[in-house]
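name: query_chain
kind: protein
chains: 1
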Amino acid sequence: MQALTLREKIGYGLGDTACGVIWYSTIMLLTYFYTDVFGIPPAVMGTLFLASRIIDAFTDPLMGALVDRTRTKHGQFRPFLLWGAFPFLLATMATFYTPDFNETGRIIYASISYILLTLVYTFVNVPYCAMPGALTNNPQERHSLQSIRFFCAAGGSLIVSGVALTLVELVGNGDEQFGYFAAMSILGVIGMCLLLISFANTKERYQFEIEDNAQLRKDFKLLVQNTQWRIICIFKIMTSASAVIRGGTALYFVKYVMEHPELATQFLLYGSIASMLGSLVSAKVLQRFDRLKSFKVIIVLYSVLSLMLYFAPPSFVPLMFALNIIFLFIMNITTPLQWLMASDVIDHEETRSGRRLDGLVFSTYLFSIKFGLAIGGASIGWVLGAVDYDASLPQQPEQALDAIKILFCLVPVAFNGILLFMLSIYKLDNKTVNTIATALTLKRQQQSDTLPLDEGQNA
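structure:
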């Protein structure tokens, strides 16, 4: 099988730059936007994040089932990038628009627009994330693909951290409500274009046959019986909640704990650059080591850095920047590994039951991410509400400052302890994954379970 070209890898990665614009906006900006700009109480915001996941519990598996049953002249996964590009823009604009409503009206509007955003994100991201299985069957190639993908995804973070707040100030001219709407509209247009570019520059080499008797209920029952699938879903809930709690409190940390709100853009920007570089070197750094052992060592390393950040004096600004940069660089070396775990579970399930469930595995994996997002966002809102955080105050009460610092530095360390336990019972190490890949390659050769798409199908 022909190896993936650099153009294909970058083309695939640019799709996650687009998705990253939304993902990192919700992590870095949305909690602050809702409390300090949009104007809804922190506790209400937290409840909104959590309640929206009830809908995802139904829509995400349905989306996965739709992807598993979709076949078009463009392939199985790529068409969703094309179909979802314009709705992606509209949902972004709607979420960061502040209507002239009373508080109840704004809460209702925020609920509807945020749920719409998560639905569009699901529509695009489930097939996008499941696509690597149709691009290559080689585990090493997938690691390289995921490294470039998350380098590009961190580009979305770079856009949000380095451009968004500057755009808010530039186009808002003192009006934060209009500034956020205009800035995110511009970024939404960029995201839409990147999805179209990703669609045009990827090629699905394999198309998997649809089983006539396939039923969502039976497929989901198979997954529930798969212990490795259960582990990665819980694992992703924990990593997402930790990332959202840390990322969602970053602006509060810089503004109130470090007392340097003017450095917020730089703090986010340098962290995003570090994240990009960490993702990019992942395949090169880890390809000679067992992925699970490496993952455990790296978790310990960035946990130590987080503890150092907690105890470092906030007035030592260069030290705070340096610790944050190193933390994000080391942490993001593991990001591609987390998505390789999902691809590995898909292959494992095919050898275990004979069913290939790309869409369903990735839709449930993405639900785990969004559930973690909800837990993280809700925790921030509830904690800030409990410690009397008041956005109108230039200086927060002492208990609020302590809470922000704990959320940013210590809570992620607590989650990391759970991650280490989950990795200790996860069985798909390098040796097992390579054995499965070899077996599946032989199976495809002998039984022709996958067929190369004609060139015309990838136009």
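note: Residues 6-206+215-447 form a domain with the Growth Hormone; Chain: A; fold (CATH 1.20.1250.20).
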